[in-house]
Amino acid sequence: MVSVPGASVHQDGETVAWEPRGHEQERNAMESRSRATDEKADGWRSNGIVWRNVILMALLHIGAVYSLLVIPRAKPLTWVWSYVCFIVTALGVTAGVHRLWSHRSYRAKLPLRVFLAAANSMAFQNDIYEWARDHRVHHKFSETDADPHNATRGFFFAHIGWLFVRKHRDVIEKGKKLDVTDLLADPVVQFQRKYYKTTVLIMCFLVPTVVPWYFWGETLWNSYFLASILRYTISLNVTWLVNSAAHMYGNRPYDQNISPRENRWVTFGAIGEGFHNFHHTFPFDYSTSEFGLRFNPTTCFIDLMCWMSLASNRKKASVEIIQARKLRTGDGSYGAVNTRQEK
Ligand SMILES: [Zn+2]
Ligand SMILES: [Zn+2]
């Protein structure tokens, strides 16, 4: 999966123009906001390097290392709260901008979309519109210059380095041709993009910091470094591992001709997003995995939402299609040959 990074913290977000009829006003408003961001960022660019992002990411990671020293001084409830914030953050990416908005692998009613958009602002990885558009480019042009985090440029580039340089022109040009009318038609996506900075300030920094202070008397210093800085830095790196490690290390049971792999460590950290060979082979599948709920808290969450009638229309690759694909293009792992013999 995953495009990441945030308007102000992340990539030099050249927003791509698209031409949906009936959405010209929204498009123009978005373009002018993005132009303003780009003009500001230009002052920080030198030789293609986006120094603003280099400096902010360096400071963030130094802050995260310092946060480790804060852990023993904080109250146990603050540890629990930080973990809860991590899970909400992760769901905002996995169940939200990835499986819902990027891939449309299930449908969500308004209250769930509002929750996922708020959780997505807590993740501060770029607004839903830009993340989903970049992610569609990643799937369509994987491992080419049009892939925002092209893993053939090495682990560092795929992980974080892509945020430190200007986007390759192919990313922008190919992105222009994608259909994103569905994103423009969703008022929740529009609202989150319009008020992105405000919602990030509230969800990524204020709420995680203030709740422990207000409800159980934690110091603002401790809660800021644990629930905000450390939680944010870990969630960013877990997301980036899907772009880096899960595109380089692991087996390829569904299609050995593509780079994305099944990586159990990434699956564990990214609450179910490490079945990446499956996901790139069957991107419409809401579970991003052949194994349903197993090692997949995000799938559990979506199923729970369906049970609560807040979600519906989960798309799933059939067992027959999966087995046939394993036999045709897989690397032989996950017992594809046995399945054929049984039949
Ligand atoms: Zn994806
Ligand atoms: Zn990928």
From TrEMBL:
The keyword Iron applies. The chain crosses the membrane at residues 54-74, 80-101, 195-215, 221-242. Residues 80-283 form the Fatty acid desaturase domain. The keyword Metal-binding applies. InterPro entries: Acyl-CoA_DS, FA_desaturase_dom, FADS-1_CS. GO terms for biological process: unsaturated fatty acid biosynthetic process. It is a multi-pass membrane protein. Residues 20-39 have a biased composition (Basic and acidic residues). Residues 1-39 are annotated as: Disordered. Its cofactor is Fe(2+). Keywords: Fatty acid biosynthesis, Fatty acid metabolism, Iron, Lipid biosynthesis, Lipid metabolism, Membrane, Metal-binding, Oxidoreductase, Transmembrane, Transmembrane helix. CDD domains: Delta9-FADS-like (cd03505). GO terms for cellular component: endoplasmic reticulum membrane. One of its GO terms (molecular function) is iron ion binding. It is found in: Membrane. The histidine box domains are involved in binding the catalytic metal ions. Belongs to the fatty acid desaturase type 1 family. This is Stearoyl-CoA desaturase 5. It comes from Salmo salar. The gene is LOC106568335.
